[in-house]
Design goal:
By secondary structure, this protein is of the alpha/beta class. The protein is about 40% helix and about 15% strand. It is globular. Bound molecules: ligand F0G.
Length: about 425
């Protein structure tokens, strides 16, 4: 018998560890509850960090006792995680936060934080003997699923809103051989479709409604705190779309505290894009959560009106004295120009985090001396169109003050030299 069970977050009904189900009969979502959670001491964790074995080197499976205790040969891993934490004076000045850490989850194998959940979900898919796996996605989940499914030879079906996912992500799904199904309408419709298809066709669903995805996602918190030598930051800030990641972070942090590994919880801030902010709206108004019909934002990764994990997320926010904030598309693009301009770079949804931190500082929610950690969820190259449109100032409705447009050159070397000399004589202001 495996040392965990699945329990309903609403009514606490328990189900067997590897039962293929995503909801309780009461409608509540499920989560993994470990029978006897533990985490090895730092010596052992550091030994694993230096090891050459997949199970130790992966920034997810290194913490396996608190993720999912599987055997080595049961794991489908691409040595995910191990993402860097950066500092940037320019971004500290921009946000007004004295100590800002940026954990770059875009450095995962498929370029987003989704790999952390996917390695666990695909390992379980094999354990339960799934004949195929599927997800709905705004792009990154599908890219990650395509990669991990290819790595272990399982057929994958990804349902994406037609014309609404960034090119980098679409290209990954196609390249890794996933059956890519473009659904008319938006992500929320694709999410409904995939749930029905998975039920009807007995295909294993690996969206974040799958509790094993959440277990893998928690490792962001473990790896971050391990890196910070368990010195708890005051805030951890994430973008919110389907709200799986924020829920996972809250669960992971709570488990670390229960084990005594950290002595308090950081506050969690979830940042939504203004046109896709059902949680922020409920939060501000104090009214019950309600999905919104047509989500809209340039940050296509978080263009979601009916997030599946909103209840889990609210629970996590309550536990961490968290907050929800929304930012405009202009704020997202401004923040992205700064994140990209300082040499780090990330996709638009990730930069909503930095915009949100700036906003929370302005509103006085977050103090200038509070140690803050931003999770940059996806790589700059995921959405080349957004970056190029900004820098060629080809974006109606938006200001692009930091556009760095390409310069067409003729064939004359003398002219080229003159051009460079002019630039070098008056270097443009840097961020
Ligand atoms: N940032 C990026 C880059 C994302 O791709 C997503 C979600 C989020 C933030 C939000 O995370 O959904 O856990 O609240 N992308 C999903 C996808 C929906 O299909 O790739 P969340």
């Amino acid at each position: 018998m495996r040392p965990w069970k699945l329990t309903c977050v609403e009514c606490a009904t328990a189900f067997p560890p590897l039962e293929v189900r995503y909801r309780c009969s009461c409608g509540g979502t499920l989560e993994v509850q470990h029978d006897s959670p533990s985490l090895p001491d730092d010596r052992e964790l550091d030994r694993r960090l230096a090891s050459r074995r997949d199970r130790d080197r992966s920034g997810v499976w290194r913490y396996r006792e608190l993720i999912l205790p599987l055997e080595e040969d049961e794991i489908v891993s691409r040595r995910e995680g191990n993402t860097n934490v950066y500092r940037s004076e320019a971004l500290e000045a921009y946000t007004g936060v004295g100590e800002l850490f940026l954990k770059h989850e875009g450095e995962n194998p498929s370029g987003s934080f989704k790999d952390r959940g996917m390695t666990v979900a695909l390992s379980v898919a094999r354990l339960v003997g799934a004949r195929a796996v599927a997800c709905a996605s705004t792009g990154n989940t599908s890219a990650s699923l395509a990669s991990y499914a290819a790595a272990c030879g399982l057929p994958a079906f990804v349902f994406v809103p037609a014309g609404k996912i960034a090119f980098g992500k679409l290209s990954q799904a196609l390249a890794h051989g996933a059956h890519t199904l473009q659904v008319p309408g938006d992500f929320d419709g694709a999410m409904r479709t995939v749930q029905e298809i998975c039920d009807a066709e007995s295909i294993y669903l690996v969206n974040s409604i799958n509790p094993f995805r959440i277990e893998g996602q928690k490792s962001i918190a473990f790896e971050l705190l391990h890196e910070l030598e368990w010195k708890v930051p005051d805030w951890i800030v994430v973008p919110g779309g389907n709200l799986g990641n924020s829920s996972a972070l809250a669960k992971g942090l709570d488990e670390l505290r229960a084990l005594g590994r950290i002595d308090r919880l950081p506050r969690l801030a979830v940042v939504q894009a203004e046109g896709a902010a059902p949680l922020a709206r409920a939060w501000r108004s104090g009214r019950p959560f309600e999905p919104i019909a047509e989500a809209r934002t340039v940050a296509t990764a978080i263009r979601i009106g009916a997030p599946v994990s909103w209840r889990k997320c609210l629970r996590g926010l309550a536990a961490t004295r968290g907050v929800v904030v929304s930012v405009s598309d202009q704020e997202i693009l401004d923040a992205k120009a700064r994140v990209d301009g300082c040499g780090i770079g990330a996709e638009p949804a990730s930069c909503a985090t930095v915009a949100g931190i700036r906003r929370l500082r302005e509103e006085g929610v977050l103090g200038p001396g509070e140690r803050t950690c931003a999770i940059l969820t996806g790589h700059l190259l995921k959405d080349p169109e957004a970056t190029v449109r900004y820098h060629t100032a080809d974006w109606e409705g938006f200001e692009t003050p930091r556009a760095n447009s390409p310069v067409p050159l003729g064939s004359s070397l003398a002219e080229t030299r003159r051009h460079l000399q002019e630039i070098l004589a008056s270097p443009p202001p840097r961020p």
